[in-house]
Amino acid sequence: MNPITFSFNIIQDLKLMLGYGFMLHAFEAGTIVAIIAGIVGYFVVLRRSSFAAHALSHIGFAGAAGAVLMGVNPIFGLLVFTSSGGIIMALLERKAASRDVEIGTVLAFMLGLGVLFISLYSGYATEAYSLLFGEILGISSANVTITLVAGLVILLAVSLIYHPLLFSSLDEDVAEAKGLSMIWIGILFMLLVAVATSIAVQVVGVLLIFALMVTPAAIAMRLSKKPFRGMMISVAIALLVTWFGLFVSFYEPYPVSFFIASAVFLLYLLTRGLQKITNFSLTERK
Amino acid sequence: MNKTSEGMITAKSLAASYDGKIIWQDANFSIGRGEFVAVLGPNGAGKTTLFRLLLGLKRPSAGELSILDEPPKRGNPRVGYVPQKHLIDNEMSVEAIELVKLGISGGEWGFVIPCRGECEKARMMMRDVGAEHLSERSLGSLSGGELQRVFLAEALVSDPDLLLLDEPLASLDIRRQGELVQLIRNVTKSRNITALLIAHDINPLLPVLDRIVYVANGKVAIGKPEEILNSHFLTSLYETPVEVLKNSQGRIAVLGVEEIGHIHTHEHQL
């Protein structure tokens, strides 16, 4: 794609870009993933569950490797492994905040399976690479459809359990006393994270999952104290950096996930830096 | 609602156990509407267990327990609860009023962003507990005493008849303890709410207390402060010498209990 150069006429550029089927698919999937990751990521950060998101994406890696081995679409391997891993973690420990050890043990076991699957599969190098770092530019239209369906399911689920999920994220003891089942909310939340990481892996890969699941939400929390507004900011940031990454990678030979991860990290540093300078912080007033 | 003399809580031959081990048994007591009751006793004696029974989070192992003539049930809107430990860390950037609003809408399914009644109600509740100025502050930036007020507002916002407070005075200095006790007394009195308050130190509560529930040595006793807090009564409850001392300002110290309590802590750490 080297002969194509940036013309500073954004509309013209976009038209040209989206004329390519692979770019159109990448933008479609990237947009869905950014919206979902922004929303689910907000709860991940609020519930201090980034280790769970990290572990689930790695577990998904094992699932995808197994699917590749069996000749099945890797996204199904991702979904099956992350969902079952998430449910096991939620069942092993009721309290989200003290789930670290349980997550670690499930993670180690499932990554062990991943190693086995990869060693059994001879042509693993490129497949494994795209799982680890994302391969959005190669996403098929079938996977775009799967991503869309998964995204809609997550949106529906979050809108249904928004209040109980938010309540239990603030204080599990009080929410439980109000009659909410922490086991069920824990399972539902882990399932949300499981499906969200599964589709996000396509864009940023297993290793860079935080770029979309944690950093945008972490920035949003520094900018708003209202949950809904924070969630919307988180979505906006995830969208912005995903589009930016896709756009730049059309002209440059470097990976999309690198641009996304770098852009969102810069935004994070910028937010912290500006807050330091202006002394504006939501939490530091004691 | 105007049955002021009715029993708010009634326990008949009530027993609680944990992992098959009896914590306390044969508890018989009745607490009326609007009473202000302190729940005392050594660590691990089963004070929090009593709260878990009332919240419907745990079943009695024997006997009967009722709140307003109904068995306790999970998510009972007539019961408000302020937990002992808040899981809020200082990174929690969500503003305080959100927690109070969730006291009304937290259990609801579905997604409604525009505020219906709950915003106004939450705001009024924050005002009633003297925490109006904290509404827009992030939960993570609040001090222990400020958080207690916010959690109190959360517990009261759904108009409960019974308020359960698990060690609300822990980690507050003496002046703030006194302020919080007065505040709790005022808001529960004006709403005719029964308050049960687990406490370690009885002294900040003495000016406002109606009765004491004393949980110790596998038993639950109830009575007026002067009936419970005397050497004779506690000695017979513990079946070992316990001394209650009173200084010139009326402050009370119970001696000989913590050593016994220590044994209990080992038996059933809840």
What report would you give on this structure?
The complex is a heterodimer of chains A (286) and B (270). By secondary structure, chain A is mainly alpha-helical. Helices cover 79% and strands 0% of the residues of chain A. Chain A contains 13 helices and no strands. In chain A, helix 7 (141-170) packs antiparallel against helix 9 (182-204) and helix 11 (215-223) crosses helix 12 (227-251). In chain B, strand 10 and strand 11 form a beta hairpin. The two termini of chain B are 35 Å apart. Chain B has one domain: 3-Layer(aba) Sandwich (Rossmann fold), CATH 3.40.50.300. Mean pLDDT of chain B is 87; it is low at 1-5 and 261-270. The chains are: A mainly alpha (286), B alpha/beta (270). At the A-B interface, helix 7, helix 8 and helix 12 of A face strand 5, helix 2 and helix 4 of B.
Produce a short descriptive summary.
Chain A is 79% helix and 0% strand.
User: What is the percent of helical residues of chain B?
Assistant: 25-40%
State the helix count of chain A.
13
Indicate the radius of gyration of chain A in whole angstroms: 19 Å
- What average pLDDT do the residues of chain A reach? 88
Average of the residue pLDDT scores of chain B = 87
What structural category characterises the helix and strand content of chain B?
alpha/beta
> How big a fraction of the residues of chain A is strand?
under 5%
How far apart the termini of chain B lie comes to: 35 Å
Quaternary structure of the protein:
heterodimer
State the distance separating the first and last CA atoms of chain A: 54 Å
SSE order of chain A, one letter for each helix or strand: HHHHHHHHHHHHH
